[in-house]
């Protein structure tokens, strides 16, 4: 269950990172409220996961999910470049996430 909570926390991190783009400097009320809610939920769920997972592992996976998800959103939705180097770097981050998961008992 802890890993599911951590994955959900990472997905909420993607949501708030993407949400920041749509708040227009926190001048749009609805995107701002949704973004702040996603921030709070993401950090709260990370805190729950930290009850049983090592800090370094949980934080790295949380930020890794956020990073990969945000880059993928940028590529798919915002038409940001998907160069071979960029995709390779994303693959390395995913490899690191998987490695940390496999190394945590």
Automatic annotation (TrEMBL):
Q: Which Pfam families match?
A: Multi_Drug_Res
Name recorded for this polypeptide: Guanidinium exporter
A cellular component annotation (GO) from this entry: plasma membrane
Q: GO molecular-function annotation terms?
A: transmembrane transporter activity
Keywords assigned:
Cell membrane, Membrane, Transmembrane, Transmembrane helix, Transport
Q: Which family does it belong to?
A: Belongs to the drug/metabolite transporter (DMT) superfamily. Small multidrug resistance (SMR) (TC 2.A.7.1) family. Gdx/SugE subfamily.
Q: Where are the transmembrane segments?
A: 33-50, 57-78, 84-102
Compartment annotation: Cell membrane
Q: Name one GO biological process term.
A: xenobiotic detoxification by transmembrane export across the plasma membrane
The residues forming the signal peptide are none
